[in-house]
Amino acid sequence: MHLDRLVTILETIAMAGRPITTGEIQKATGLPRPTCYRLLQTLADQRLIDDPGRQSRYVIGQRLMRIALSGKSDGDVCRASGATLRAAASSFGETVFLSRFRGDAVEIIHVEVPQDATRDHIHPGLGRRPLHACSCARAIAAFSEPDFQDHILRGSLTQYTEHTKSTPGALRAEFAEITKRGYAECDQEIDLGIASVAAPVMVGTLGATFSIGAVGPVRRFDKASRQRVGQELITLSTRISGAIQLAEAA
Question: What's the rounded mean pLDDT across residues 66-72?
Fold first, then answer.
């Protein structure tokens, strides 16, 4: 069947673990050469496979990888990253959270609070966040394709407080600054007295699919503290990415 042959080709490319030539694919699958070429073109047209070097050497495409990752439940992702998030909350003394880019929205999917019962903390809640004002969304947007950034700029840029960046020009400048320093900040842009910082979590070649952030009261989570935590989040994001990718393979 046509579908069986497509699946066979995808499995051959995936198991190779490296860019694989058309000739190698044809030999491994035993398909007639014209059929193999035609099916490879079909898969490439649908972006299920990619030819990154333009040399007829194929790898699994970003679209297929994104489909596979989309099928990974929030529970799986949270279990894979939970220990790292809990350790970070204890180390920072502030709430740490994980956000996910899904469709055209960014959602907080997991929160870990400090274990010190004598210390107050901020809980950001779960679910969708303002794309233009929240650090977790801007951390993803700054490292995403221009289409997603344009989607944010065309949306409702609500002015939550006098600190909210709510014009396209200010947000474009903010995206550029985030890419330079590697993390995003929200300094009282949603609620007065509350600040947050977040770093993108790159998953394979898919770009910033998640972000890891921390939130706290401005009285102690000041600029210097956010800068320190932001740099640590950049390091932690690599560990989170690895844990998510291992969960994918499990």
Answer: 62
